[in-house]
Design goal:
Elements: E1 10-15, H1 19-22, H2 31-47, E2 52-57, E3 97-101, H3 112-118, E4 123-129, H4 131-144, E5 148-157, H5 161-175, E6 177-179, H6 181-191
Parallel strand pairs: 1-2, 1-4, 2-3, 4-5, 5-6
Length: 192
Amino acid sequence: MTVTTIDPKTALIVIDLQAGIVGAPTVPYPAADVVARTAELAAAFRERGLPVVLVHVSTAPDGSDWAPGRIEGGAQRMTRPDGWDVIVDEVRGPGDIIVTKRNWGAFYGTDLDLHLRRRGVTQIVLTGIATAIGVESTARSAHEHGYNVTVAVDAVSDLNEETHQNSIEKIFPRLGEVGTTADIIDLVKKSS
């Protein structure tokens, strides 16, 4: 469903726009485009006094606190280079909420829900990389937590075109609404 409204208490949730992820080749949009569109959305949210939440994935230097489990290719414990988890400057702003996750989604094992509920947030707008991993996992959990979910479809990208398209066409419409950055900014400006 195309985005129809922005609730008075809506938060922008930015997923994994960090040094170690934005350098990867993404489709259908280059990471630089996702970062630029997210920066536009963040500016519009800040201008209206709406929360901006910057989520990044991080682990202990040896990866010992990464989510366990059996996965194809073996455990994801690996040493990461210094600074790989630093959120890119282009999306950062004063007063932003920073959430550190150790899983795909931004809700499990974090204080994200607490931050949102304390601020009376009823809707979230999602951007970030990767569409079918961090963004979709967070959208699913937000829906399960009772939030109205909106995905900025031109401010998300993936490592794989097929998984990106599946999320955009089949998953997100079942969890909430989708819209372009311009559509969402227009509604944010009209909402106050």
